Amino acid sequence: MGLDVSSHLHPVGSFDLADHPVPTGREEVWRFTPLKRLRGLHDSAPLTGSEYDVKTEAPEGVAVGYRPVAHSDRGLSGLVPTDRISARVWQDTTRVLTVEVPAEAEVAEPVFINFTGTGVAEAASGHLLVKVGAHATATVVVRFQGSTTLAENVEVAVGDGARLTFVTLQDWSDDAVHHSTQHALVGRDASLKHVAVTFGGDVVRHDVTATYSGPGGDIEMLGLYFADAGQHIEHRLFVDHNAPKTRSHVTYKGALQGQGAHTVWIGNVLIRKEAEGIETYEENRNLVLTDGCQADSVPNLEIETGEIAGAGHASATGRFDDEQLFYLRSRGIEEKEARRLVVHGFFNDLIRRIAVPELEEQLAATVEAELSKNVLKED
Amino acid sequence: MSTLEINDLHVSVKTDDGDKEILKGVTLTVKDGETHAIMGPNGSGKSTLAYSIAGHPKYDITSGTVTLDGNDVLAMTVDERARAGLFLAMQYPVEVPGVSVSNFLRTAKTAIDGEAPKLRTWVKEVNATLANLNLDATFGQRSVNEGFSGGEKKRHEIAQMELLDPGMAILDETDSGLDIDALKIVSEGVNRFRAKDAKAVLLITHYTRILRYIQPDFVHVFVDGRIADQGGPELAEELEANGYDKYVKAAVTAG
């Protein structure tokens, strides 16, 4: 059994769990993931756990609440599960946490969804739908913390001419396992800024796909991650350029420290035949702060038309640049302080581009806290 | 006040063919209030001398001594050398993405002085120094050396020298790649620095051009890792007329 998938750049989905056998770890999409540490999410662990608490803060004009699946817009984005975890979540879901921004609403304050996990023993599942009406502007921030075993499906539907910033902040405790399958549909001349910030968790794997429902759509994906000893952080991204004059720009930056820290970044882009005049660029940079870390970085670009404005990618993984450190130290700055400056500088540009003022200070503080574990550690 | 004494300095670098000796016994004393020019052809080891004094890890000091006011420079870390009063204006300043010039300057000043500068006077001082070097106020918000033109990089080096106010400044080919206007601006910066009390300057250059704007007290001709000749400012004029040929030939014969 199993779906006939000739290339992971042409994924074929199915709602039928029977089409999704238990992965062995040899599949292209699973080969980097430590399946044994997924606590059965990919197999048959029940997804009925309730060890979590969700609090939402919604500015005026934005509706946030649970709806029974039958009375929800589930499927609005076009999400069709392409892996077993997502298919299992789809099958077990009874309610959809829905964020609805009406057409033409200009919402300055972010919508916050605060998810706190309170236990890892029983796996939980969830479905989030963010629906932004035509020509509306909004920011939605999902903050995860605590201990959990969580599998979720996330749908983002951005109406024509609308602008959405969607942020997930994975600030988990060390024992969290989090699998997220996300799909975004971006309308004609609409723009989506998708941001993933991952610091905590034992295994965090996000599989994010995005496509367009009309020409002129703009997708920016920004990611910031910091893996400590033993952590596995995996971000898989796929932008499907299926409409003309669309744009996608992906920048993910990560730092790794400690024995067994492992990060995976997959940046897939497909430019379909009809997607003339599009522009895409993907970039992944990793800063390896100590020995014993592994950063996998795989950009893939498949182009079915030459009539495009531009397509490119870049990937670089390296240690501290000795010349940078020499330059800073030659100005009297001590080695630790020089390292601190370089790492903050590495992330600063990205934090600025996220452009959610409510998060900026917190992110800089989190980078500082991560640095204190190794780079700035007192000897 | 600062006096730099270099005594019989030998320096090697690691290459694929093993260690290669670049400096073959350099002896030189620069006293406070003095400006020394080191001139020489490409590959003679001028930059190696500058970077060895600053403590770049690529260079291996095999023998000799370097002291600043009697203190052993070679025993100091890179940042300790800077805090002891040494400054190197680099030929190829390094980009530090995401670190703003203003943050960098403040951090360096705090490190050198051992305390944070007083905010109000510091901002004024930075702005005045940048303005003197024809760098506008938005310069402080840019990332260190990132996207700077060649001239901006050099003017930024001189701005750092003026603000950090070391006793001893080494300028490594600060004139290279500058047009005449930029060269004048940079030279004025160096002369402002020299006009202060008891500053020592070691000016490394391939060309005599900059010496028209910065008058040295002593000129040393550097060939094949050694000082081949020395004299007053008139030596620069002779080099301008005759080039390095006779020294290079002599070095080849000697070698």
TrEMBL record, chain A:
Domain SUF system FeS cluster assembly SufBD core as annotated: residue spans: 121-346
GO process annotations (BP): iron-sulfur cluster assembly
A family per Pfam: SUFBD_core
InterPro entries registered for this protein in UniProt: Fe-S_cluster_assembly_SufBD, SUF_FeS_clus_asmbl_SufBD_core, SUF_FeS_clus_asmbl_SufBD_sf, SUF_FeS_clus_asmbl_SufD
Family the UniProt entry places it in: Belongs to the iron-sulfur cluster assembly SufBD family.
UniProt xrefs under NCBIfam families: sufD
Protein name: Fe-S cluster assembly protein SufD
Organism: Nocardioides agariphilus
Automatic annotation (TrEMBL), chain B:
Alphabetized Pfam families for the sequence: ABC_tran (PF00005)
Keywords for this protein: ATP-binding, Nucleotide-binding
InterPro entries in UniProt: AAA+_ATPase (IPR003593), ABC_transporter-like_ATP-bd (IPR003439), FeS-cluster_ATPase_SufC (IPR010230), P-loop_NTPase (IPR027417)
GO terms for MF: ATP binding; ATP hydrolysis activity
Domain (ABC transporter): residue spans on this chain: 4-249
Family according to the record: Belongs to the ABC transporter superfamily. Ycf16 family.
The protein's name in its UniProt record: Fe-S cluster assembly ATPase SufC
Species in which this protein is naturally found: Nocardioides agariphilus
